[in-house]
Write a structure and sequence with these properties.
- This protein is an alpha+beta fold.
- Helices cover 18% and strands 57% of the residues.
- It has a single domain, classed as Beta Barrel (Porin), CATH 2.40.160.
- Strands 1-2-3-4-5-6-7-11 form an eight-stranded antiparallel beta barrel.
- The longest helix is centred in the N-terminal third of the chain and has 23 residues.
- It is elongated and about 60 Å long.
Length: 246
Amino acid sequence: MNKFLTVSVFLVLIVSGVLRAQDTTGVATENPAVTTQNSPVSENDSTKIKIRLAFNRKWAFGFNGGYSYRLPNKGARTNQPYSKYLRNLKSGYSLGADFHRFTWPQVGLGLKYNIFKSQGDFDNKNGDDITIQFVGPSAVYQYPFKNNTTSVLAGFALGYQSYINKGISDGNDFTNKANAMGWAVSVGLEQKLSNHFALNISGACYLGTAYKFKREAGGVTETINLSKEKFEDLSRVELTLGLKFF
């Protein structure tokens, strides 16, 4: 399956779940506390008031962690033993953090960081220890449900990705390093537990491709250019649980 089709299906499934939750919970309605007979409030104004009350915050800091899976490229799709090892190596864990300042009640601008880790040994003489990091500016958007404590959470980020593989090949240590531009999209649900604390669950997708890397082995460093058919795909999807403070 093409990686972009995989990403589309992944995001559609998450969005569908969010929309079903929204249909069950309902949307924000007029706040009777701010409506009087002598001073009627329009539905649009009432919604804006509810949003301000629900997101009365100037900043938000969060961190999350969970399962992540790198999207397989062509080289990992055969049934050869090493290809199966590569597929297993694509599963790992993901940790992240973000900080946003809310210039508007529902929209925040800030910075996002994420790290992916996976490792494995093919045999006693071959193995890999992979780290992929993402950092860059990001934007988040939130919209509250009727209860004003649950909200839809969506985000977009564009930034820098680094790739490091500290492995062993035929008994010899090596280090491969690469970097690339990348972007990330996410969608999920957030549940406020207090005025300054919330839990969230979200799905995210990171996309990026490296076409060359530096290889250090035996005291020698060389630059290796990759073909379009044998590039290093940094794309991955993740499902995480997180905490947020504001």
